[in-house]
Design goal:
The strands form ten sheets. Strands 13, 14, 15, 20, 25, 26, 33, 36 and 37 form a nine-stranded mixed beta sheet that branches. Strands 3-2-1-4-11-12 form a six-stranded mixed beta sheet. Strands 6-5-9-10 form a four-stranded parallel beta sheet, sandwiched between helices. The longest helix is centred in the N-terminal third of the chain and has 29 residues, at 194-222. Helix 4 packs across helix 5 (164-176). By secondary structure, it is an alpha+beta fold. Among the domains are: 2-67 and 212-251, Nucleotidyltransferase, domain 5 (2-Layer Sandwich); 71-206, no CATH class; 474-584, 2-Layer Sandwich (Dna Ligase, domain 1); 602-662, no CATH class. It contains 16 helices and 37 strands. It is an enzyme of class 3 (hydrolase).
Length: 663
């Protein structure tokens, strides 16, 4: 058995694939935010006794520390004279000039009094301008030890070109402050732009202690090696990932996008939008030609992280998102969440605020229990809470509950627009693959709001992220900044050879002796501030290779910005970064066809759409290939529910996916 375990904010999802028969088993268990390892192990135990070959884990430990701003006891060492890198940042204000008068600069990831500098200077080619000051390095290391600061990020100017000074600083820290957990910028992100490199390095240092502790606890209790999902769409063994924990910051959402991409392409949809609706948040990604888009301009919370990650927008619009009244008297939903504990009012665990899930329960759109009856829901508690909110707003309870869901649907649609309309893509060209426990609940409203052609809900939608963990290759990314308008073939060969050697060594430690290397390059027109990434061909690096990369850059620039200077000698092309991804391929599970309908009877209960009426409730297991359900109706299964609004039709395809479209 290969097992995938995805720890979300509300539920921990588990999927197991039998490598001999291809049989897939799924289950869910409530997450345990105080100690995520408890939920992880409880989920595996629910599967029963199996011969486990490997385990892949999607974790939110690093993400939650950043989103909740639980960062403390963090120090920063940089080049003498550059102690205000974090204060100056990029001098840009979120939301542009309209916000500049009101915006208050948030606290920096490291306050000024915990920033120390060391003498020594390199130029942009990595040549030493001033020697490294061992004396100052020792002084700084002892100062941090005396202050009890144990997580330290080191970022020296131009260390992407030559890491020597940073490595000497690490040796001094090892000697003078052995308890310190250290992150070097030349290890984390060997790429220029010192502000982003500094913050990315500090984020890595900030999450390292928590990640190491969590992985160590899990390894001890599990008693076997396991792998961890990375933000770039690859996995890495737990023993390696503790050295680069920043690579896991979008661990779970990345797996969901990959799982949905495989399910959609198997069913004949190569380009889709994916929407992963959980209890705490909703994650949106775009898949083009079977591959999720990758970015290095991502951020987690308010921290820019320039590591390669699947391009995902996250909004606080999950089942646990809290409905509240603003000081102006308007109804708002999220981003705050009731989470797994205490959870929505209907959980009966002491929750005191109305959530999106309470609105669904009150309107009858989800059953009075979750997980096939494992978690009973208190409908009366939801009704009382919504009635109290309705009285404050001067609306009926039904109108209030519908309004909560409407705001939640618009929050989700805004996230989809950010990844499509704002990137020059027409949202009407893409079917939406929606999954996660709460993902399918607003499918019909999203079709209307965005003009989507259809919404596809995979089988076991609540477990798609965990399934995605089993579809993932081992993958490591390496980058080197080399800014030039005239890249010599010899230099290109040297840098790519060096990056491929690094990637090969890492994959060798993971047990792959036949790795695959993917090259890419970041280029721009001379004088531009930002670059465009294009894939670079494999094979020999010669004049034809050089011309092909330039041609791909012109094409990509034209597609992104509507113009290119392909045949204009006045606009030279500048090479900025060269990149290599080292991939250790695995055998992916096969998405199997649905042969015939299973067991399950149709029932009736009152459900409110435009009015409250007795509505057919279908068990998804009983719907075979070709089955059609016309709204109003509700389709229920173990981990999720699909309300079909009046005027919509749901059809079951040959793989068991539910495809919803307007009549």
């Amino acid at each position: 058995m290969r097992i995938g375990v995805d720890t979300g904010g509300t539920f921990t999802d588990v999927v197991a694939v039998d490598e001999q028969t291809g049989e897939i088993l799924t289950t869910k268990t409530p997450s345990t935010p105080a100690n995520p390892a408890d939920g992880f192990l409880a989920g595996i135990e629910k599967l029963g006794r199996h011969d486990v070959g490997s385990i892949v884990h999607g974790t939110t430990v690093a993400t939650n520390r950043l989103l909740e701003d639980r960062i403390g006891n963090l120090g920063f060492i940089t080049t003498e004279g550059f102690e205000f890198i974090l204060e100056i940042a990029r001098q840009s204000v979120p939301d542009g000039y309209g916000n500049s008068y009101f915006w208050v600069k948030p606290p920096r990831i490291v306050p000024v009094h915990l920033v120390k500098t060391v003498g020594g200077r390199l130029d942009h080619l990595g040549n030493e301008v001033r020697p490294f000051s061992d004396e100052q390095a020792v002084e700084v290391a002892r100062w941090f030890r005396a202050k009890g600061v144990t997580a330290i990020g080191v970022c020296f100017l131009h260390s992407y070109a030559n890491p020597e000074h940073e490595r000497r600083m690490r040796e001094v820290l090892w000697r003078e402050h052995p308890e310190a957990v250290i992150s070097l910028s030349s290890d984390v992100l060997r790429e220029y732009r010192e502000y982003e490199r500094s913050v990315t390095t500090l984020v890595d240092a900030a999450v390292k202690p928590a990640m190491r502790s969590y992985i160590a606890t899990l390894s001890t209790r599990l008693g076997m090696p396991f792998s961890v999902m990375k933000s770039n769409g690859g996995v890495l063994s737990a023993r390696e990932v503790v050295n680069q924990p920043i690579t896991t910051v979008l661990s779970g959402p990345a797996a969901g996008a990959l799982g949905a991409a495989l399910i959609a392409s198997t069913a004949g949809h190569e380009s889709v939008i994916t929407l992963d609706g959980g209890g705490t948040s909703t994650d949106v990604a775009v898949v083009i030609d079977g591959e999720p888009s990758i970015t290095t301009e991502g951020s987690v919370g308010r921290y820019p992280c320039k590591i390669p990650m699947i391009d995902i927008i996250t909004v606080g619009a999950g089942g646990g998102s809290v409905a509240w009244i603003s000081p102006e008297g308007t109804l708002k939903v999220g981003p705050r969440s009731a989470g797994a504990d205490p959870g929505p009012l209907c959980y009966g665990k002491g929750g005191t605020e109305v959530t999106v899930t309470d609105a669904h329960v009150f309107l009858g759109r989800i059953p009075p229990h979750l997980l096939g009856g494992e978690i009973p829901l208190d409908v009366d508690a939801a009704r009382t809470g919504i009635q109290a909110l309705a009285d404050k707003l001067g609306l009926t309870a039904e109108r209030t509950a519908t309004g909560i869901l409407e705001i939640s649907a618009f929050n989700q649609s805004n996230a989809i627009r950010q990844l499509t309309v704002k990137r020059g893509l027409d949202v009407r060209d893409f079917p939406l693959v929606t999954f996660g426990g709460s993902g399918p609940l607003l499918a019909c409203r999203l079709i209307d709001i965005l003009g989507l052609p259809s919404v596809i809900v995979p089988r076991d939608p609540g477990n798609v992220s965990a399934f995605g963990l089993l579809t993932v290759d081992v993958k490591n990314d390496y980058v080197r900044t080399y800014v030039t308008r005239d890249l010599s073939l010899g230099k290109a060969v040297e840098i790519f050879h060096d990056l491929e050697h690094q990637a090969g060594e890492a994959l060798d430690r993971e047990g792959f002796d036949d790795p695959v290397y993917q090259r890419s390059a970041d280029l721009r027109y001379y004088g531009q501030a930002y670059e465009v990434r294009v894939p670079a061909p494999a094979g020999e690096i010669d004049e034809d290779w050089h011309a092909e990369v330039l041609s791909r850059f012109h094409d990509a620039h034209e597609k992104l910005y509507g113009y290119a200077y392909r045949d204009d000698p006045r606009h030279g092309v500048e090479w900025v970064n060269l990149r290599v991804s080292g991939i250790g391929p695995i055998t992916r599970p096969v998405v199997r066809r649905l042969e015939k309908a299973g067991e399950g009877a149709t029932s009736v209960r009152p459900v409110h759409f435009d009015e409250t009426r007795d509505t057919p409730i279908h068990q998804r297991a009983a719907l075979g290939p070709g089955a059609t359900v016309r709204g109003p109706a509700v389709i229920e299964e173990y981990g999720s529910t699909i309300p079909i609004h009046p005027g919509f039709t749901a059809k079951i395809d040959e793989y068991g996916n539910v495809e919803i479209s307007r009549d």
